Amino acid sequence: MKNENIEKALAKVRVGLQQDGGDLELVSVEDGVVKVRLKGACAGCPMSQMTLANFVEREIKKAAPEVKRVEAVI
């Protein structure tokens, strides 16, 4: 699995997250699971799980189809 493709996808989604005062960082990639840490406004947002599934995970899977899922960690 190429972290470079994942990093490119994260850079793309960061733009949208940062417009709303949030951000995220890549924590790890293990066995097809990408773990990210939500930061700023995203960390406490009640919509963060929806954003993670419908925006972040979708973009990462487009860039790296071998990714099974994306999880948020604390």
Question: What would your notes on this structure say?
Answer:
- Helices cover 45% and strands 30% of the residues.
- By secondary structure, it is of the alpha+beta class.
- It has a single domain, classed as GMP Synthetase, Chain A, domain 3, CATH 3.30.300.
- Strands 1-2-3 form a three-stranded mixed sheet.
- The mean pLDDT is 92.
Question: Which structural class do you get from the secondary structure elements?
Answer: alpha+beta
Q: Residue-averaged pLDDT, rounded?
A: 92
The helix/strand series, from N terminus to C terminus, equals HEEHE
State the fourth-level CATH superfamily: Fe-S cluster assembly (FSCA)
Q: Based on the coordinates given, report the CATH architecture.
A: 2-Layer Sandwich
Task: Compute the number of helices.
Answer: 2
Report Rg. Answer: 11 Å
Strand order in the largest sheet: 1-2-3
Strand-helix topology:
Blueprint: H1 3-19, E1 22-30, E2 33-40, H2 48-63, E3 69-73
Parallel strand pairs: 2-3
Antiparallel strand pairs: 1-2
In short:
By secondary structure, the protein is of the alpha+beta class.
What descriptors fit this protein?
alpha+beta; three-stranded mixed β-sheet; GMP Synthetase, Chain A, domain 3; 45% helix; 30% strand; 74 residues; 2 helices
